[in-house]
Amino acid sequence: MSSHNETRWSRKLGFTRAELPGARNMQLAALPAAFAGRHTAGVGKRLLGTPKQTVRDEIRERTAQHVFEVLGSLRGCAAKLGQILALYPGGVPEEIAGPYREALARLQYAAPPMLPAAVDAALTEYLGPDWRADFREFDDRHATAASIGQVHRAIWRDGTPVAVKIRYPGVTESIESDLRQLRRVAHLVAVLLPGMDIEALADEVCAGIRCELDYRCEADNQRAFAENYRDDPEFVIPRVIDQHAGVLITEWLEGEPLTTLLGRGEPSASRDRLGTAIIRFCVGSVQRVGLIYCDPHPGNFLVLANGRVGVVDFGACPPPPSGIDDLLAAMLDAGLSGDPAGLDAMLRRYEFLRGDGEFDAAEFLRVLEPFRRIAVDPTTTFTSTWLRARMSEGLNLRLTNVHRRLAMPPELSGYCRMLLTLVAVLAQLEATVAVGDIVADHLPEFAAIRTALHPMTVRDN
Q1: Which residues of 348-369 are buried (b: 16+ CB within 10 A; e: fewer)?
Q2: Residue ranges per domain, the chain?
Q3: What is the pLDDT of residue 401?
Q4: Widest Cα–Cα separation across the chain
């Protein structure tokens, strides 16, 4: 795109030059050069007597700040990757997390908004030049902004308060460019989280966003959830009012976002109740709706005035794959039994292992022990310390780390995304939750295996 055209489109759509495709690529492409420059400068500092560890920590700190500043200023895949990483500041060692905690927190619920002129241009493209006739009122200022779109408050033509979700123009075209660029800078994020497969995470993020860009699919998902949770005493799902192209219009939910409650500091009983509700919704929806709610992000839950929990954002809700019940039952049986041979056989049968050769199943059972405790203990308290310990196990660079041999079957990607996000949210809440009982209520296979292997966990009725 020429400089003249970039300027013309930036004025029309209200984007800053930093958000245009050419500038986006330049920002991402500049990260490796800056990283190399810091290493070169570090060599000079070491020659002048600065301790090696001090130089290494300084490079890591400045790289962290730079990476997350860039990810936080972009839309699409780059911003989504930043949002996912932002859920895990408590799981990253303090010496790494400290310098950029504030930048990470911003990524959880902030993205550069479209200006009013861009909003008008987008809605004219999606709904036609007379789009305002469908609304009694429309607030040109965004209520919330996210990685692929933003939400505005409005009053629908029949008087219903609504949320108008608008997909950012051009975000579809940015997906493939983002994927290529994120692969190039993956090793920089690995500096911050050594051992994590950032390239695979980038692939998963981009694949998920391709689905989330389809607002017609999201509307169908939300209708399914709203129908199955209609008049539910605990959860509220806003009805879909209308959907066209890159616009989704739903009922407006008036409530306090979980992000606000996290920042304010709720009493432990309130945090426990919210954590329990979020787990119950995520686990229960698979059976109740037949869809996996993959994005239990703090910004997607609201506490309403009557105490019920509102849930929004249904873009990432794939159906469970066929045959998944047998796979989950085998995983639970092997994980809870404590038998290394049985665990090894299950991992090989369902292709959880990379390559052939010996695998230390006994060591893997030791790593799984905290998760087994979640299944069998009456309650589990999730904390940043707990999460940090689990991440340290997975990201440890030692050659004997059993995680290096593990692979995730593609059919489990939806469950994996849901569980990773869910655990991070529970750790932020510092919630104490009866996880095993909740899962047993919704998954008969788990209840039977749990009762057979650990009969003392059965509740008194």
Answers
A1: eebebbeeeeebebeebbebbe
A2: 3-108+180-195, 255-461
A3: 67
A4: 73
